[in-house]
Amino acid sequence: MAEHELPGAEELTAKEIESVPAPEKSWKPITDLGKMVQDGVITDIDQIFNKGYRIMEAEIVNQLLPNLEEDLLLIGQAKGKFGGGQRRIFKQTQKKTKEGNKIHFKVCAVVGNRNGYVGVGMGKSKETVPARDKAKHTARLNLIRVRRGCGSWEAGATEPNSIPFAVEGRCGSVRIKLMPAPQGKGLIIEKECAKILAMAGIKDIWSKTSGQTGTKPNLISALMDALKKLSEVKVQPQHLGKLAVVEGKMKATEEKVVA
């Protein structure tokens, strides 16, 4: 066995990797945005997006969105007969050198609050746990605000269960088109993409893909490109109410009426 090879790395499961706790660090902000968040000048994540600030510290997202959920996407595949290996959360690559095989692991993480905010990040390292931590850290830095809306013009619903209009994203040869769907239809899309949409708070959608969709990182990047384009399209004021367009979190869901 080569010196750099990790024995038993292929048998690691998602639960085993998730069971390893991330190192705890005390946050000392180094950016102006981080200092404003720590001092209480900025208390809402929407203030950052409205002013176009760039998030460069993951702790900013942790403080403003304490209920953030995270998950690891299945972007790799274990070795199997005739390529039929089981999907796994890390993608393994090897580089042949005179010293032996240099192994690296790539992990993709998604974070979101299921209410209008989602982020996806990639992490790469010689070991699985550091790659996982890098992916979760990068996902917080890549957090975006998702525009949602009613998936049917005829429904007249006020809940933003889908997206307000069709958009298309691309990455490499992959093309993905997201289309609004009526309430109760579900997420008609690839499983890993469905996890991202669920984290963003989207419940119903139709989709159409083309290209080398088996390359999961490109498919995920194309999906995020499509979600970003939702906020670039201008919507006329008379259509905002009819489509129940909401950008970011729903204010009504945070207000609880105490009987």
Brief descriptors of the model:
single chain, 259 residues, 29% helix, 9 helices, 3-stranded antiparallel β-sheet, disordered N terminus, alpha+beta, Ribosomal Protein S5, domain 2
Give structural notes:
The protein has 259 residues and is α+β, with helices and mostly antiparallel strands. Among the domains are: 26-64, no CATH class; 146-249, Ribosomal Protein S5, domain 2, CATH 3.30.230. It is built from nine helices and twelve strands. Strands 1, 4, 5, 6 and 7 form a five-stranded antiparallel sheet that branches. The protein has a three-stranded antiparallel sheet with strand order 9-10-11. Strands 2-3 form a two-stranded antiparallel sheet. Helix 2 (32-39) runs parallel beside helix 4 (58-64) and helix 4 (58-64) packs across helix 5 (128-141). It starts with 13 loop residues before the first helix and ends in a 5-residue tail after the last helix. The model is unreliable at 1-11 and 252-259 (pLDDT under 50).
Low-confidence stretches at least 5 residues in length (pLDDT < 50)?
Answer: 1-11, 252-259
Total strands: the figure is 12
Alpha-beta content class: alpha+beta
CATH topology of the domain at 146-249: Ribosomal Protein S5, domain 2
Largest sheet: 5 strands, antiparallel
- What average pLDDT do the residues reach? 86
Rg for CA atoms = 20 Å
Order of helices and strands: HHHHEEEEEEHEEEEHEHHEH
The CATH architecture of the domain at 146-249 can be named as: 2-Layer Sandwich
What count of helical segments does DSSP give? Answer: 9
Note the overall shape.
globular
Name of the top-level CATH class of the domain at 146-249:
Alpha Beta
Query: Span between N and C termini?
Result: 67 Å
Helix content: 25-40%
- SS strand fraction: 15-25%
